[in-house]
Amino acid sequence: MDASYEGKALDHFDLLVIGSGPSGRRAAIQAAKLDSSVLVVERGRRVGGVSVHTGTIPSKTIRETALNLSGWRERGFYGRSYRVKKDITAGDLRERLHKTLNHEIEVLEHQFARNKVATLRGEARFVDPHTVEVESEGGETQRFTADTFMIAVGTQPFRPDYVPFDGKRIFDSDEILELPELPRTMAVIGAGVIGVEYASIFNSLDVKVTLVEPRQTMLDFIDDDILDDFTYDLRDRGVAMRFGQKVEAVKRVGDGCEIVLEGGRKVQAQMVLFAAGRMGSTDRLGLDAAGLSADHRGRLSVNPKTLQTAVPHIYAAGDVIGFPSLASTSMEQGRIAACHALSKPTHQPPEFFPYGIYSVPEISTVGMSEKEVLERDIPYEVGVARLRETSRGHIMGLNSGMLKLLFSIKTRRLLGCHIVGEGATELIHIGQAVLNLKGTLEYFVENTFNYPTLAEAYKIAALDAYNRMSATKVAEVSDMPAQ
Ligand SMILES: Cc1cc2nc3c(=O)[nH]c(=O)nc-3n(C[C@H](O)[C@H](O)[C@H](O)COP(=O)(O)OP(=O)(O)OC[C@H]3O[C@@H](n4cnc5c(N)ncnc54)[C@H](O)[C@@H]3O)c2cc1C
Ligand SMILES: NC(=O)c1ccc[n+]([C@@H]2O[C@H](COP(=O)([O-])OP(=O)(O)OC[C@H]3O[C@@H](n4cnc5c(N)ncnc54)[C@H](O)[C@@H]3O)[C@@H](O)[C@H]2O)c1
């Protein structure tokens, strides 16, 4: 990492940021734009955080490579046996990965340099609430004081003792990027977002995947209809699901692995990915010295409006504060925290933000699910469109995917938008805009959409709801007693 701090006499800053992931970097750049002096301390070799090095960008790059080389997007036309490259190797996946990551890091480093954000490589820890000590790889230490601090240290994979991780056959979600070879069979433990994304990505590469989850369900924050569609798709493609059974042991057996489930059932696979959540990286941060403490998963609590911790001049943002733990929301938190720390008025994050799951196929959602609407007792109507109903879907050879919209019967406002299928994570932003601008069914019904596009599904779904809502109105009128 370029230690732009070195050689400078400054040891006091307006803002000292620990961690250079999405929240740390946005906070630092925002502070620099406000003419404040900023130091970013990062213990990794280069800036970028989990997002750039082991999380968001790498997993999405592997997904893109897998879909391109496998010819996945063309299989609707040419059949399931269609391949662009016959023998896809782990090396093929890595090649594109390294190019993409290098580019991302260069952009970031340039951004820091342009905005005169000082960076320093080393591990930071508090020695008192106003002082941080930074230890370099070689063991030298330097101390810095600051008016305000930002803890943006993110998370690391949860690695329980009973799992014999070896980086050869049994991996966590960071190590999987250095996979030496593509396995024929793979077991993924934990059907959270990471587990589901990787399970479906490896399945698209013809790896036989078994998804293991102690709970009876997966991704239960996703609307039921969307989840049913997605689950059907996974099963249809041969992903085995072992849900509702705890993992009792994970072992290396011969050249492969064995997972023993509660009740004695076993899952055999050449390789295991353990993706059962992440822990806040706060264990070596000297929280005590700062007057702070973390929860059992290493997370800090903050005031959600200002992102201040219990010690008001110390802020925290990103995955270290827990839900929603997304790169997208972390960036917003970082900026809001920096503005508050430097007394610059700013907005609050909007109530509804999109959630994008880059599984194969993608899932994306914004606003309330049907279950939430029911819980809140809001009279509602649903409109559904299948992506294969759109002309663009025909052209692309899509045979799966759906978009579901929920509208309030009383106000006609959009309450929720849920998509599974190709392009879901891009398409969602139309729903997000209408939702946050408090738009109604009429937006979709009265506006012209580009044709042929997948976005046309919004119009189809809205008309579906509109027809039923009109029918409701007619029924209401005809139910009225004769005057
Ligand atoms: C496999 C995977 C896929 C993901 N996919 C998506 C996605 O598609 N979309 C999305 O929005 N989000 C995704 N996420 C989540 C996203 O990566 C995180 O929400 C985001 O990275 C959190 O940012 P952060 O600011 O908390 O910092 P992080 O990115 O977690 O980075 C924290 C940094 O702090 C550094 N650090 C820690 N302790 C110290 C210390 N004491 N001193 C100095 N430096 C320190 C670390 O080295 C690290 O570089 C994914 C995560 C994973 C793991
Ligand atoms: N596309 C995205 O936005 C994206 C992608 C990947 C990750 N992320 C973020 O990264 C974070 C971490 O993701 P994750 O999938 O690791 O965590 P998670 O908490 O979402 O899911 C963990 C899963 O593992 C299961 N589990 C817990 N303990 C277990 C055990 N001992 N054995 C077996 N299974 C167990 C849980 O029931 C859960 O289903 C998430 O909060 C997510 O927001 C986001």
Automatic annotation (TrEMBL):
A Pfam family recorded for this sequence: Pyr_redox_dim
Enzyme Commission number(s) from the entry: 1.6.1.1
Cofactor binding comment, as recorded: Binds 1 FAD per subunit.
Gene Ontology terms: cellular component: cytosol
Binding-site residues, FAD: K60, D319
Subcellular location: Cytoplasm
Cofactors that this protein relies on: FAD
Keyword Nucleotide-binding in record: yes
Record-linked InterPro entries: Class-I_Pyr_Nuc-Dis_Oxidored, FAD/NAD-bd_sf, FAD/NAD-binding_dom, FAD/NAD-linked_Rdtase_dimer_sf, Pyr_nuc-diS_OxRdtase, Pyr_nucl-diS_OxRdtase_dimer
Major location category of this protein: cytoplasm
Keywords: Cytoplasm, FAD, Flavoprotein, NAD, NADP, Nucleotide-binding, Oxidoreductase
Enzyme class: oxidoreductase
Gene3D superfamilies: 3.30.390.30, FAD/NAD(P)-binding domain
Keyword Oxidoreductase: yes
Limits of the FAD/NAD(P)-binding domain: 13-334
GO BP annotation list: 2-oxoglutarate metabolic process
Binding positions (NAD(+)): G190, A191, G192, V193, I194, G195, V196, E197, E213, G277
GO MF term (any one): dihydrolipoyl dehydrogenase (NADH) activity
Residue stretches making up the Pyridine nucleotide-disulphide oxidoreductase dimerisation domain: 354-461
PANTHER family the UniProt entry points to: DISULFIDE OXIDOREDUCTASE, SOLUBLE PYRIDINE NUCLEOTIDE TRANSHYDROGENASE
Record function comment: Conversion of NADPH, generated by peripheral catabolic pathways, to NADH, which can enter the respiratory chain for energy generation.
Family assignment from sequence similarity: Belongs to the class-I pyridine nucleotide-disulfide oxidoreductase family.
Protein name listed in UniProt: Soluble pyridine nucleotide transhydrogenase
Source taxonomy: Bacteria, Pseudomonadati, Pseudomonadota, Alphaproteobacteria, Hyphomicrobiales
